[in-house]
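User: My advisor, Dr. K., asked me to get a structural model of this assembly before our group meeting. I'm new to this, so sorry if the format is off. These are the inputs:
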Amino acid sequence: MSWTEERTATLKRMWEGGSTATEIAKELGEVSRNAVIGKAHRLGLKSRPSPVKAADKTKPAAPKAKPAPKPKAAEPAPAPAPTPTPAPTPAPAPAEKPEPKPEAAQGPATPQGQDAPEPEAAKSSSPRVVSVGPGGFLRQGPGDQQPPIPPAPPRRLVPAKPDPSIADKTSLLDLSDKVCRWPMGHPGEPDFHFCGEAVNPGFPYCVEHCGRAYQAQLPRGSRRPPPPLPYGGPRVR
DNA sequence: CCCTGATTCGC
DNA sequence: GCGAATCAGG
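Assistant: The format is fine. Below is the predicted structure of the whole assembly, which you can bring to the meeting.
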């Protein structure tokens, strides 16, 4: 299996989403954990808390010299150079842009049948829309809320053949601003579809999935690292 | 032992 | 470019 655009995208998404290399490898399938890590490095997206990165501890001089772990079969003469340890270059952290994807999958709009387009349900006179979800989720109206990390930017998914098994499910084409866009299952699988429940007013998801998509900001120290992402983490169904 | 990511190096 | 083998910390 080669690294297609899709697989690379998934890798990148999951890696940045906090999934471990093992999880990513399992998700992609037919690749090893090492392959995922290797690919991730080649893509330039490394870093992330690694167990083998904490090299310094309050100790200014750490005599770490282990750049020759490859004895191989032939081991000629050892390097006579005492290696005077060159200047430690302070690696400047490159500012990363997390790739803003304002791509809102607004359907071609169904002219007739549906009610007139209502861009802003709450204008100036509207009282405050308060949406409450599980997990202490409580937000103000859509106006004073900046969307957190987009949990699942729907990729371009083209159902090659309309699978009868998802005939009654919410497909990509069935998405509107009235139904929950939470993806169910994994892209590429025959039964991949979307939640389709009535949305929590002002949100792209239903109440239940809002609770998953928008985690309440917990006080420092009690934060959960990986918010449950839709298709990205381990399979949940 | 298990897990993790990092790195190397032959292909 | 790819990934198994290896290293190394938790």
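One thing worth pointing out at the meeting: The longest helix of chain A spans residues 5-17.

User: Perfect, thanks a lot.
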